[in-house]
Each structure stands twice: as structure tokens, then as C-alpha cells.
Design goal:
The complex is a heterodimer of chains A (325) and B (469).
Chain A: E1 2-5, E2 12-15, H1 31-61, H2 78-84, H3 87-119, H4 125-137, H5 140-150, H6 157-164, H7 186-215, H8 218-226, H9 231-260, H10 263-268, H11 280-290, H12 294-302, H13 305-324
Antiparallel strand pairs in A: 1-2
Helix pairs in contact in A: 1-12, 2-12, 3-7, 3-9, 3-11, 4-7, 7-9, 9-13, 11-12
Chain B: H1 12-25, H2 29-41, E1 52-58, H3 63-79, E2 83-89, H4 94-104, E3 110-113, H5 128-138, H6 143-147, E4 150-151, E5 156-157, E6 160-165, E7 169-172, H7 173-178, H8 188-202, E8 205-207, H9 214-226, H10 243-259, H11 271-277, E9 281-285, H12 289-297, H13 299-303, E10 305-308, E11 322-323, E12 326-331, H14 339-351, H15 353-359, E13 365-366, H16 401-404, E14 405-406, H17 416-422, H18 426-435, H19 441-461
Parallel strand pairs in B: 1-2, 1-3, 8-9, 11-14
Antiparallel strand pairs in B: 3-12, 4-5, 6-12, 6-13, 7-9, 7-10
Helix pairs in contact in B: 1-2, 2-3, 5-14, 8-10, 9-10, 10-18, 10-19, 17-19, 18-19
Classes of the chains: A mainly alpha (325), B alpha/beta (469).
Chain lengths: 325, 469
């Protein structure tokens, strides 16, 4: 029982904890009921759109299911053996890691630079921020079609600019052809895919790092200035250590987006030239859906799972650490 | 000339309706009147009134055909009290869409693709009765279209092919005249000689794709056949690792080095068309659709494009064959509740296929040549192209298309294994690995054999293909 006396009237107000407990008249006043009800949509969503497809993928990967015949007959590890022995799969596996890791290394370097620039005060800052964020807001399929035209074998505006600058054509630095053939030469095609991944994941990483920079206490920066610490000292001894937790989040998001993406490769190169840009997601789609071998497609897709589990565990750990700080 | 389709007088109401439809859809009033006349003549043998029909099909490479087809289907629906819906999507997206609908167990009643999807057989209705009825009405079906839709192992027509588009060689006459071969190449040897000369002296490459797309796959098959090779034999056994195929792959490597650029490794289905229109290709393998497009936008370029029958290789004229560029076939999924309606519509389409050929500007050829015999006759439609070819007999080359066009997987049938292989980049990659020097022709063919054999073995264990003994 608690009590409070009014200083003006001297009246004493008393109450007990029971006054705030549910009295059973309204179901939603019951916290034991309210919690599960509020959680239910998220649980249904996760079970329906993640759990069921995942269980289905596992069932498919151990069966002989095809698009035409979806009866699930157990074949053990046969699909995994078939898939592993395929050269295209091996290349797709390597490419998936390469695109994810290299693109995120580039992204984190560029995002640090951009975040520092955008945290400074200058005229037109809002417009610059808007432009930096634009790739993130553009639907990925539309954006990649734009890149497809930009990198076109015949009509690429980049090639046109290089020709105007005297850098492309007979007797020039990138000559003698009239076009770079961005999507036709293996190294340039890989570079193109990497560029698009960097272009589309950079804005998110920049925004995350901007938030991290804003959270660094001003007195820490002031103390470093007073002590005469140089830019690089401040960067490596103050900013980077304080930004590492949030930088980890940016990197992990980037890896998940890049590792699981098939849109960029599907639209830009369809895995070519000669499978040089094939990734696990695109190869799973070509095999499982376009060629109708759902069992092999599922087996290929399941190779994404171990890496995604590791990333998820790291993210959970980072989140937990953030809660305890 | 269209009078042959007007068998029945049209009512005033029908005429008004037709004119309105013509204005709304962009069809000519005459075309709309013929549609109305055909719809009034339709006499379904089953009671389909009150049903619906949902059709999924590719966006035709000659857009005028889609405009006509939509009006044609709607008019038939209205005349027979059937609610008809037609959805067109990019041909490259058709297999994925069908896959999604089969997985969901619902979707369109009729699905159309431009190459054999034998791997869907188990989920599709047997269409033997429709083939039998069409044969009864129009005479024998082309052997090629039958082989593209019939599984001899199960005895089932898993699809119904109403027509196809020939896949001739397209060449720029001015370039080949300068190379001393004014009528274009007749053999693969001439293609190598002339292509190399045009590339080195006129700076223009030839364009045969080696990438993950349908034209590259068809071109590769044509080359293997010309050398006497193939992927499977007539009994559905894998025979890809043969001296003939190794020789064909070695030829492609030489052709690439002398006459092409790396751009052929990144092509999509439209790329060779674009290159020819841009004046940057001396020779491509394609249907007449690109030519029809150019006629509208760059007539002077169109005047310079001519056509050739498939090139002859070391195996001789009997093996100078081409895959049907678009082999148009409908399938009826098992889940469809409107199978009778779908059957009746297919029979109706075939009955009026002469008009379909005309509306496609001679892109479509019928699986039943009796639908429009004037097309292939001497002095007939192809000898005097009413759609503005210069000279008017430019398309005469296509008159023999029924003889040199063959099915996916020839000399065997278009089975499930070939269907899967045709949707993967296995064969173009085999060519490309040798062309780039990544592998020797022998190694490239051996790797393809491994991949192809795994697919054949798997489908054989499913009981859907023969061979293996």
C-alpha cells in the first residue's frame, strides 16, 4: 500500500499495486496474453516466409523434385555430390565470396571517407547527402537495367566519353577497339558486377557510419584537439576504435545483401561471360527454376546457409554487446 | 488478298464492333472485320459457354502479332461466352513463370513458350487428342514440330505446336559484295573466309553468340549438325564427345579469332539484332523479326539485309539444318479447370492460322502447311512480300524452311534432358571455352559431356527418356 498527502488540502491518497493489475474485464489488459498477441504477426511472418521455404529447400535438396514432378522422393546426398562436382558451381562459390568480400572492403573505405565529408559543414550538404543516398532508394532491378545500358557493348556512354577523351580507339590507352566491352571480358565483367554492388551498398554503410560519427562524444574530440593530435592519429586512435562496433554492423549488412543477391548478375551478365560472374544465387535460379531442376537448385542455395548463419551469429553478438554497453 | 478469310457475311452490329475494336487496338478495320468473321464461324465441339480461359504467352518478336492475337482471342471469347484473358511476358521469363505456377498449382490455363519444355511433361496434359483432331482437319503435321512436342518413351504429346519461325542466316549484302561473295556465304568454310576478310578489311565482325541465351544455343546446335555431330543420337544416347563435335568446336574457335570480338560472350537474345541494325555485324543467325523492325525504322539498312539457308558443313547438305528459331508450343497444366476451353481455342487458332501467319508478317510458319499453302508456293506470298521488302522476293529463301528446320535434340526427340540442357549455358560455354583458349576443343567437349551425361542419366532414371542401353 502506498500513500501521498496533498500539501494544500492535507488530503491523503492511498493506493495499492492491485489497482493497476488487470481485473479480467478486458482480455488485452492481461500482459500474459498481450505479449504473445503483439508478437504473433512477426512469428507468423517469419515462419511463413522464412521457416517454411527453408524447410522446403532442405526437403528439395535431399529429393529428386523437379518443376514438372514435385513429388518428393528421397535421394540422400546425391544432389550435393552432383552440384559439388560441377565446375560452374565451384566458380559460383568462389565468385560469391569474392564479390561479397571485395565489395565490402571497398565500401567500408569509401563509406568512412564519405561519412567524414558529410559530417562536416559545407554549402549544398543536403543535396550531396540526397545524391549519396539515391542509389539505396532506387529499386534494384531498375538500377541494374540502367547500369546495363551504361555498360552496353555498343552504345555505352562511358565508352563514348573515353573515345572523346582520346583514351579509346586505335592507338590509344584502352584501344584499339571502339568499345571496352565491359560485360564481355571476364575481368571487366567482374569489375562491373563489383562496381554495381559497391554503388548500391555504399549509401547504407555511409548512413550507418554517419550515425556512429555523430555518437562520438564531443569532449573526446575536443580533448584530442587540445592535445594536438593530428588527423590520422585522431582517425586511427579515436574514430576507428569507437566506430568498430557500428562498422561491423555496416559490413555484415553489406555482406548479406551482396552474398544473397542475384539481381545484379541476372540482369547484367546472366552469369557470363563463360560463367565468370556466376554466383550461388544466380546459379541456383538458372538450375532450379529456368532449367527446372529444383532439387539441384535447392542444394546450391543451401550452400549460402553456413555463411549466413555465421553472419547472423556475429550480428546477434554485436547487438548483445550494444545492449550491455 | 485477304478475302480468302471472309467466308461468311458480317452483321452490321459485328461490323460496327469490329471497327471500334480496330480503332481501340490499332488494328486495321479490315483485320478486325476478319477477326469478327472468324469468331462467328467458330463452332466448338464441347460446351464451353460460361467458362474462362487464361493464356500466358511470350511477347511476340513482331509486336503486330500480339495486337492481332489479343483481338482474335477476345472475339472468340465473346462469340462463345468465354471470359478470355491474355498475358504477354518476355520470352526469357516464361520458364520461370510456368515453374512458379506449377509450384503454386494454379495459374494460366494455356502457357506458351518458344522452345520445348519437355521437362514439365508430368505436370502437363496429354495433347494427343488435339494433335489428332488438327491432323484430321489440316493434314499431316510437320515432322519437326511433332518431334518437338512428342515423347516417344511415354507416347505423350506434352505440348501442342501450332507453328514456328525459321532461323535463316542474315547477312549485309554490301559487306559481302566487297568481300567478293556477293550472294553471301553458302558454307561454313565461306563464312570463315568472308567473315575474316570483312573483319580485317572493313572492320565489321560477324555475330554468332556464345553466351547464356537462346540464340547462342540454337547457333551451337546448327554448327554441330553441319559437322555431322549432335548432342544425342536418335535413340537418346549421349554422343556429344565425338570427333565431329570436336572439329566443330575447333572451327568455332577459329571463326571467333578471325571474325568476332569478345562481345559475343555477353549477348542476350536481342544483341545480334542490335548489332546488325547498327551496321556492326556482317552475318548473324536469326529469324526475320529484326529485319521487320528495321524496315520500319531504317529502311535503307533493311534493304541491305538478305537471307541464307543454313550453311553447309563437312557433313554435306543433308546436315545443313537449323533449329526452329521460335517453335511456338502451348501446354495445358494439369491444374487447369478449363481444359476443354483450352483445347477448343487451340483448334480454333489452328483453323485460322493463315491469318496468324499474315499478321506476324510471315514470321510464323504453320505446323500444318495446308493452313496457308500460298505462303510457300512459287509466285506465292514469300516471292512477293507485301510488307515492303526490296526486292519483293527477298524472303524466297524461306520457302524451303520446312525442309531444313529441325527439332531440338535432333536426330533424337526433344526430350526432358534436351529441354534442361537448352535452358542452361552448357553448349555455348563449350564453344566459348575453346574460343578463348581456356580449354582445347577436346577438353571443352569432354567437360560438356560430363555435364550432359549427368542430366541424361537423371531424366532416364525418372523414366522420361529412352536410350542408355
Amino acid at each position: 500500500m502506498s500513500a501521498l498527502t496533498s500539501p494544500s488540502t492535507g488530503e491523503t491518497l492511498t493506493w495499492s499495486d492491485d489497482d493497476f493489475e488487470p481485473d479480467g474485464r478486458y482480455l488485452l489488459d492481461n500482459s500474459r496474453l498481450l505479449g504473445p498477441i503483439m508478437l504473433m504477426p512477426a512469428v507468423i511472418y517469419i515462419i511463413g516466409l522464412v521457416g517454411v521455404p527453408f524447410a522446403l529447400a532442405i526437403a528439395y535438396a535431399f529429393s529428386d523434385v523437379t518443376v514438372g514432378d514435385q513429388s518428393i522422393d528421397w535421394v540422400g546426398l546425391r544432389n550435393f555430390r552432383d552440384v559439388w562436382g560441377n565446375d560452374t558451381f565451384q566458380r559460383a562459390l568462389r565468385n560469391s565470396f569474392m564479390f561479397a568480400i571485395v565489395s565490402q572492403v571497398i565500401v567500408i573505405i569509401l563509406a568512412n571517407m564519405l561519412a567524414m565529408v558529410l559530417s562536416a559543414n559545407f554549402h549544398g550538404k543536403r543535396i550531396v547527402r540526397f545524391l549519396v543516398l539515391l542509389p539505396w532508394t532506387t529499386p534494384i532491378a531498375l538500377a541494374v537495367i540502367g547500369w546495363l545500358w551504361t555498360l552496353d557493348n555498343v552504345y555505352s556512354p562511358i565508352d563514348a566519353a573515353l573515345r572523346e577523351l582520346g583514351l579509346l580507339g586505335p592507338g590509344t590507352m584502352f584501344g584499339p577497339g571502339k568499345n571496352m566491352l565491359w560485360l564481355a571480358k571476364p575481368d571487366l565483367a567482374q569489375l562491373s558486377v563489383l562496381t554495381v554492388h559497391v554503388w548500391r551498398t555504399l549509401p547504407l554503410a555511409t548512413v550507418i557510419l554517419l550515425a556512429g560519427l555523430a555518437a562520438i562524444p564531443q569532449d573526446v574530440k575536443d580533448a584530442a584537439d587540445v592535445d594536438g593530435a593530428s588527423f590520422w592519429r585522431q582517425f586511427f586512435y579515436i574514430r576507428v576504435p569507437l566506430l568498430i562496433p557500428i562498422m561491423t554492423v555496416a559490413i555484415l549488412y553489406g555482406i548479406v545483401f551482396t552474398f544473397t543477391d542475384m539481381t545484379v548478375v541476372y540482369i547484367l551478365t546472366r552469369g557470363g561471360p563463360i560463367d565468370n560472374t556466376q554466383v550461388l544465387a544466380s546459379w541456383a535460379f538458372f538450375t532450379g527454376v529456368e532449367a527446372s531442376n529444383l532439387a539441384h537448385g535447392a542444394a546450391i542455395a543451401l550452400f549460402l546457409f553456413p555463411l549466413l548463419v555465421v553472419v547472423a551469429l556475429i550480428m546477434l553478438r554485436v547487438a548483445k554487446r550494444a545492449e550491455t554497453v | 488478298m485477304y478475302d480468302r478469310f471472309l467466308h461468311k457475311p458480317i452483321s452490321r452490329r459485328g461490323m460496327m464492333k469490329s471497327t471500334g475494336a480496330a480503332l481501340a487496338l490499332g488494328l486495321s478495320p479490315a483485320a478486325a472485320m476478319r477477326i469478327e468473321a472468324m469468331a462467328q464461324e467458330a463452332s466448338p465441339s464441347a460446351d464451353i459457354a460460361g467458362t474462362s480461359l487464361k493464356i500466358l504467352q511470350w511477347s511476340h518478336f513482331v509486336p503486330a502479332y500480339d495486337v492481332w492475337f489479343d483481338a482474335f482471342a477476345q472475339a472468340w471469347g465473346e462469340a462463345n461466352d468465354v471470359d478470355v484473358t491474355v498475358d504477354h511476358i518476355n520470352t526469357a521469363d516464361i520458364p520461370a513463370t510456368i515453374a512458379a505456377e506449377l509450384s503454386a498449382g494454379e495459374g494460366h490455363d494455356l502457357v506458351e513458350h518458344i522452345s520445348s519444355l519437355a521437362q514439365y511433361e508430368t505436370s502437363m496434359l496429354d495433347m494427343s487428342d488435339i494433335v489428332a483432331e488438327s491432323t484430321n482437319r489440316h493434314g499431316e503435321q510437320l515432322a519437326m514440330t511433332a518431334a518437338n512436342t512428342f515423347n516417344p518413351t511415354t507416347g505423350k504429346f506434352y505440348a501442342y505446336c501450332h507453328g514456328y519461325a525459321p532461323d535463316p542466316g542474315n547477312y549485309r549484302k554490301s559487306l559481302w559484295e566487297n568481300a567478293g561473295i556477293p550472294d553471301g556465304p553458302n558454307t561454313w568454310a565461306e563464312l570463315l573466309e568472308g567473315g575474316a576478310s570483312i573483319r580485317s578489311e572493313q572492320g565489321v565482325q560477324l555475330g554468332i553468340g556464345m553466351s547464356n541465351e537462346i540464340d547462342s544455343r540454337m547457333a551451337a546446335q546448327t554448327l554441330l549438325w553441319a559437322y555431322g555431330g549432335s548432342i544425342q543420337d536418335e535413340n537418346e544416347n549421349v554422343v556429344i564427345n565425338s570427333p565431329e563435335n570436336v572439329e566443330a568446336v575447333a572451327y568455332m574457335a577459329e571463326l571467333f579469332r578471325s571474325s568476332m570480338t569478345e562481345e559475343v560472350f555477353s549477348w542476350n537474345a536481342a544483341s545480334n539484332n542490335q548489332l546488325m541494325i547498327a551496321g556492326q555485324a556482317s552475318y548473324i543467325l536469326n529469324s526475320i523479326s529484326a529485319y521487320r523492325t528495321v524496315q520500319d525504322v531504317q529502311p535503307e539498312v533493311a534493304d541491305d539485309i538478305f537471307f541464307k539457308t543454313p550453311l553447309e558443313g563437312p557433313a554435306g547438305p543433308d546436315f545443313a539444318k537449323a533449329h526452329g528459331h521460335a517453335v511456338m508450343m502451348y501446354q495445358i497444366p494439369n491444374y487447369s479447370p478449363n481444359t476443354d476451353t483450352a483445347r477448343e481455342f487451340l483448334l480454333y487458332l489452328q483453323d485460322n492460322y493463315g491469318e496468324a501467319i499474315v499478321q506476324s508478317k510471315y514470321y510464323n510458319f504453320s505446323a500444318y502447311p495446308s493452313n496457308l499453302p500460298e505462303l510457300l508456293e512459287d509466285g506465292g506470298l514469300l516471292d512477293n512480300d507485301e510488307f515492303g521488302s526490296n526486292p519483293p522476293d527477298k524472303l524466297s529463301t524461306l520457302k524451303s524452311a520446312n525442309e531444313w528446320t529441325t527439332n531440338l535434340g535432333w536426330p533424337g526427340p526433344a526430350n526432358a534432358a534436351m529441354g534442361e540442357i537448352f535452358n542452361l549455358p552448357i553448349i555455348p560455354n563449350m564453344m566459348a571455352r575453346a574460343a578463348t583458349g581456356l580449354q582445347t576443343p577436346e577438353e571443352a567437349v569432354a567437360q560438356a559431356e560430363e555435364e550432359v551425361t549427368e542430366i541424361f542419366d537423371r531424366w532416364r532414371s525418372e523414366g522420361l527418356i529412352g536410350g542408355g542401353s
